[in-house]
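Dear support,

I submitted the protein below through the web form. The confirmation email said the job was done, but the results page showed an empty box. After a refresh the structure appeared. I'm attaching both so you can tell me whether what I see now is the final result or a partial one.
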Amino acid sequence: MLFRSVTGGSPARLGELQIWDVAAKTLKFSTTVGYDTLYGVSWSPNQKFVAFGCPDNTVRAYDVESGKQVFFNAAHNDWVLDTAFSVNSDHVLSVSRDMSMKLFHFETQRFIDNVTSITPGALKGGLNAIARHPAKDELLTGGSDGTPKIFKMVRDKARQIGDNSNQIREFAAMPGRVYSVAYSRDGNRIAAGSSLDGKGEIRIYDANDGKQLMRVEVPTGGVYSVVFSVDGNTLAAAGFDGMVRLYRTNDGGLIKEFFPVDVQPAKVAAAGN
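What the results page shows now:
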């Protein structure tokens, strides 16, 4: 069965997690969580669990079949904005406005390590997005400094103040903040979307050597979501203006753009009616 997950909510009121059966076009379950909007839902590779972040600084996960919470950790010091599972579904990772990427053991719900550096000043602002390599435990992140980076999940050197030994690669900085990152299915390319001063930008890089492969400007608003097609030939992007755009990944050419939902202005009743 094909399920999809959605997180959202009503700011300062409640968060909501929904699981949908796409083929049947039915809601499998919906549950409220906390008292504010939820962020960054991700599926475990074994398809049994979904994890997400909360503005109460917690990372949580739910069992898809039972609809019950099975993971909770509050190691972050600020809003948790995105999550990812390890290849074997045995670890959860999260990024936050507190400028850290954290690693947790799923079954025991324990905090294990800060994947990113703990050196004061090493990180420039919060982290907004995370994506795992399709076949190995390497994590792509983006955030306030506009610079996508790849980190290995498991530390293989003793932590030293001043080091950033888990970082594998850093890509050329984009304008503004990076709000979304994605791997191609073969893991050889990465995409990122950013926003600055009411404009957006999309870039594709070679994941292995860092070379920029594609760049597209979006003058109508910031880019908040990017994803590769299964064959890697198309990149979908969406953002502030509500438009979904499909681009060719080889040259950045626009294939199609559309509004996913037809929104009609509300009708105002005449005075006295």
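Response: this is the final, complete result; the empty box was a page-load delay. Residues 203 and 273 are 53 Å apart (CA to CA).
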